[in-house]
Amino acid sequence: MTDKPSPTQEPTDDNFPLYHTARIHDDDDDEIPAYAREILSSQTLSALEEFLQEKKQAEENFERLRKQNESGVDDVLEARDNRLDELDAIGEDWRLSQFWYEENTVNTIVEEVADNTPPGGRIACISTPTIFIGLKRKCPSQSLYLFEYDTRFSMYGTDFIHYNYNEPQEFRDKLSLRGTVDYIVVDPPFLSVECLAKTMLTVDLLKKESGCKIMVCTGATMSDIVYRLCKARRTVFEPKHKGNRLKNEFRCHLNYKSEKLHWDENELLLTTETGTVADQLGNDEVLMSFPTATLINRKGPGGIFKAHTRLRKGAAKLRPLDYAERNGYIRGIVKEIIHDPGRGAPLAKVQFRDPYRYKKRSQTFIATEGLHTGQFIYCGKKATLTVGNVLPLSAMPEGTIICNVEEKIGDRGALARSSGDYATIIGHNHEEGKTRIKLPSGAKKAVNSSTRATIGIVAGGGRIDKPMLKAGRAYHKYKVKRNCWPKTRGVAMNPVDHPHGGGNHQHIGHASTVSRESAPGQKVGLIAARRSGLLRGTNKVKNA
Fold first, then answer.
1. Do residues 299 and 524 touch, judged by C-beta distance below 8 A?
2. Domain 323-455 identical in fold to domain 488-544
3. Distance CA 188, CA 197 (A)
4. What is the pLDDT of residues 154-188, one digit of tens each?
């Protein structure tokens, strides 16, 4: 970066624009220099003079306001009709991502907070100075606290707490506030998942264990993350900023049902790129509100298929794709190796620290060969190339043995999941962002290079090599899988029971292919087959 030239440095052909730019915007000069008037146009000079005048007036107003707060003068505050005068005196600082709310927005939020806070309760305003000033006028008897990075608000004394969202748990001087706040108003200073998640760590520390109400004002694109972090749903209320300088769609989110700020009915069913939020959080109430797909048995006159799920330990999936895995890695530890009835491969309970909340979450992975309890599992772009770790395919070299491969980004595993199965990375196409893999069947498939996979072979290989030996074992195996067992062959039946039955010996007696339009009782055998038999003279398995 080029150094700023000193005022005494002579301008040259190389530093002439930088020289004049540095001199014109010198913070120590309150007036436009003579040399600047010679090189600037009349329109530019007029705009610059207006800017300097506004800057000077704002500094004078702020200094007067600071002296009034230090001396305890409240007459001016009581006489004001516009509660935004204090912020006008302080002024927005775009370098701190400050955008003041409009007066109508402040009035609406202040009334909502005041109506839902018990008398004498504590209210915390995180990065919302406009709401803090409005509440000081509306609720003077309430205990108000402003968590703000801008030290200009330190004139409010003990009500001001210097807050840096990069250190969300640092409250050395306000330890008594932890777990005592009744209402929290949050407006994260930056529109990013990292900023929102860190700010929510502060909310978790401040809120009461029971009955704390939370309002989050942020971009509409963050609604699903907000719901996941604090169960706050999007409302129809849209906060407005002064001058409409913020072009992003802004929304208010509440973790409770309000009489004035109603939830947006079109946004109650929130989804993320990796599936429903209810699926990730295990929220049965939200999950039950989604439409359920039913599978109809196409063969015979049977009814609706219903799987046996009573004894199952849970879905075996990779972690939901998040910021931690996209940009670095997250570490988990194998707590337990478990057996899931109806599944050949063993499962591993892996415990992770939630990157968004101060708690731990368990995820059920498909166990790989060699995995043991107490082993660390690393998931993410920068994880090491070790058996059991989860990485994107683009980070793996050719020839890597993988399993539980994602077919689409974020589906959390769809290919090579059975016991003893594995896939092999054949090559990468960096131009198209595709990776070619060889599946357990021998077929070759091209998938997105950003999809993830587990390194290694699925445990439980050789399971089917051991014979059943007795019918009782087969009975229990198929009972938990809801397969039809024992299954009598059609040619062994009578002709009244099956289209293939009857005859002096066991044979079908006619072509086994049937039309797609056949009646349910006749739809057995090869349904709507284009051909039957082996592909003679060619490979049995065609490469994709």
1. yes
2. no
3. 9
4. 877 888 888 888 887 776 556 678 888 999 999 99
